[in-house]
Batch of 3 targets.
Target 1
Amino acid sequence: QKDIKRGLAYSTMSQLGYMMLALGMGSYRSALFHLITHAYSKALLFLGSGSVIHSMETVVGYSPDKSQNMVLMGGLTKHVPITKTSFLLGTLSLCGIPPLACFWSKDEILNDSWLYSPIFAIIAWATAGLTAFYMFRIYLLTFEGHLNVHFQNYSGNQNTSFYCISLWGKGCSKRINKNFRLLRMNNNESASFFWKKTYRSDENVRKRNGGQPSINIVGFDNQKPFSYPYESDNTMLFPLLLLVLFTLFVGILGIPLNQKGRDLDILSKWLAPSINLLHQKSKDSTDWYEFLKDAIFSVSIAYCGIFLASFLYKPIYSSFKNFDLINSFVKLGPKRKRWDKIINTLYDWSYNRAYIDAFYTTSFTGGIRELSQLTHFFD
């Protein structure tokens, strides 16, 4: 997905799947534990995305199609550092990286899945890798690289004209300065341009825009025009930092504490009357060796997903001018076309949500309508 909020919303489905899996296995405590940890991490991510959208609106105007589009983002690390740090912590937590909150609950569900069924365990572990992949895809497209809205037209059809965006997201008049040259990267300017720290627009930017004024959102307490995103105010940053604290420390609720020969955590004290079918016969203390062994395996899968996302979405060209591994894939020749077809097929399948909506519309909605028309004709 290209919409940052939609990507986060779809990531919630896999986490709900973990909770339903734990409930189906009878591991009620793990399900509730993951509900708590996931709630804080996902709240942090959604509020972080809101901060990103708020900062992008100062550049592209109030237009959800543009301000929420990750294709137009990138390079926000130096513009919104606090939002970036909090978003990264939420992403790592959802990926299951210790010692953040979701690691403790997700790892517990993954371990319980092996006790219940190896088939469910394989599905759960594969989902953990996919979670790390698409969460870091969102992070990399949003914060790494360079601000793409300054380097390409939103329509993508014309590369020579300047696309002006008004306050409400509509295109401005096409009457622009013909001498305006769109900023592009070449071999001579790449080293100096991307490290130039320019945040606010000035008279030079206004002159380059053909005399057109930059965006000034008065209703959002922004009295100065901006050509780059800027950090949100304290009203939005304070809840972010508060959720960061919960994301860091709420996992303590499920860490077992040895008391009188058996492990009892804070969450288990709260749920003392409830029954956990998978662990009702376990009265011994936790085997920390087994826990560490399983944790290393789950974290390794998460890092595989992170590495794959970094390989596909991180702008490696900004760090390595001659990256041999990338060049070897580019020079595959005929195999490259076949590989591109496979990638495009997977992308279309993922972007269209596995065509579930199309199948539902064709099979169920269309079938019911035809049956209704047949019934109406019979009547």
Target 2
Amino acid sequence: ELRDTLVPINSRWKVKEVLMAADAYSDNTGRRYSIEYAMIRDINDQAWRADLLGRLLKNRDAHVNLIPLNPTPGSKWTASRKKDEMEFVKILEDYGVTVTVRDTRGREIDGACGQLAAAEKV
């Protein structure tokens, strides 16, 4: 339900359908696929959401790339707390899901992904 709100295209392709296609790709190529997951504080970074994701991806050839949201001027959303991020990683790993956290280079100077565009005046 949250994904329906945050990702409008979700109304076209449901998570189940996307995973079925990704599994078929993996079966046909022998390669794993990546799930990009933008971590948003108090929106989708709770332990119970990690548990749902872990159960969904357990025994699949999937890799989760967690993306800490870069704070941008005027946005109501911000990055997850480090402790929440680390707990999310641990829960996924406990399910046997491989996971990495994307590096946020440039954040401290407002030069990370999304921050420069948000700072530009149109």
Target 3
Amino acid sequence: MENKTNDKNNIEDFLGSVFFEDDTKDVFEESRRRLREISVDRFNVCEFKKRMKTSIVHQDDYINEIANALYILTQVQDGQIDPSLKPVILAVGPSGCGKTYSWQVAAKKMGVKVEILDCSQVTPKGYKGKELSDLLRVSMEALNNKGVIIIDEVDKLLEFGDGQIPTSLYELLRVIEDTETYNDVLFAFTGSFMIVEKYLKKKYSNPYNFTEKKFNMYDHLEIDDFIHCGVPVEFMGRITNIVRLNALTMDDYMDMLNKDNSALHLYKQHFLEHGIKLDFDEEVKREIVKKSLNSCIGGRIIKNELTRLMMPVIEKVSSCKELSSVHIFMKEHRVEYKFEYFKSKQDEIEF
């Protein structure tokens, strides 16, 4: 109860410092009254972060950014914070590390609508294909102007090298700044920005920069680094928060595979509900993880590999009602399956 009171007082102090620095005490008191009518449990940041970490591995900074941004969005929607204070996040990281997936998880856990606008589909005006304005309009209609829009792979849309901004992106930037029309919409950008990563490696290649034993160049990532690489100033000027996602390790992928809400767990749960025990050897799991580690699509490969490995199992289950268990294991560098039945029959197949 004390924490809730402190949270409410902190919010009120924040509102006072932002909006009511002058002698508008009456307006501030009215805002206090409205604030008390809103439950502080509407969006619990700490609880939300805990729930996110049950699905997302090794991306705590990103989870923090998402949680704080969604909290501010709820406050904007409740009329407690000015829409101009909504953050605009730029998430940078390799493919498959969870830049868009994290938002999809957040959408499920919080019940907020999230639309992903894929910039790799965008073509310039005058060319056959999809224009940014068309994709943006579809996303807005899907959200009914209330939720989150993720502009994915935005680095594919930006013209590196000359600092100029594509004409099609101007409309998007105007939308972001139109806090009156899009009051209840939060915008976030994602991209790999490999050119910035190469620049950072060169920038911090001097051995004198590595005085610390665990120097991480991404801890020093700044807006100016993007501008130096040719990312337009007009675009970077709209970004309030930059977060660099971690490249996932083998242990991270194994953790992802073993989580209670992973695709592997869902398969096991599904078959168990039909009286069938599904068992994966650790060696098979390691093979799946190795493919994720070596793949350019990262964590996405886990679901793809599981789907491929489960095809023989699904075929067997659909044709045999007496199946009691399935054991998937490695033998001479090949995946094999051992099927057991209620009538003590068993067989093995290679895949």
